[in-house]
Write a structure and sequence with these properties.
This protein is 31% helix and 12% strand. By secondary structure, it is of the alpha+beta class. It has one domain: Glutaredoxin. Strands 2-1-3-4 form a 4-stranded mixed sheet, covered by helices on one side.
């Protein structure tokens, strides 16, 4: 798998989840504001909407959107501690905190000295 991310963006949620499951993955940091990859090529060639997160699954399939990617990762990892059984209140409680992490937590984790106009020099 390969995760496309941007510092300070909501893709931090997926990055945390991938680290938690401990499986192998590649990480590519893109300039979302300019839609540019580190090699200078256009990010829209990978992600037509130009947004993160985007995950390449390895069979040519891509997924976007935090909660969709997270569900895929949790299902693949078969970790009931990350996602309890469907229909249980425990599952909905996990979904609550994961939504908070996906929507809010990343806002306080912008790297020091990060300049939005100069991302990824």
């Amino acid at each position: 798998m390969k995760l496309y991310t941007h510092p300070g963006a909501s893709s931090l949620f997926v990055h945390i989840l991938l680290r938690e499951i401990g499986g192998p993955f590649d990480l590519e940091v893109v300039k979302v504001t300019k839609k540019v990859r580190p090699d200078g090529s256009g990010y829209r060639g990978v992600a037509p909407r130009g947004m993160v997160p985007l995950i390449e699954i390895g069979d040519g399939t891509d997924l976007t959107e935090n909660m969709v990617i997270a569900q895929y990762i949790r299902d693949r990892a078969e970790r009931v501690d990350l996602m309890p059984a469907a229909g249980t209140m425990e599952r909905y409680r996990v979904m609550e905190w994961q939504s908070i992490v996906a929507a809010e937590l990343h806002k306080s984790f912008v790297p020091p000295n990060w300049q939005i106009s100069d991302e990824i020099s």
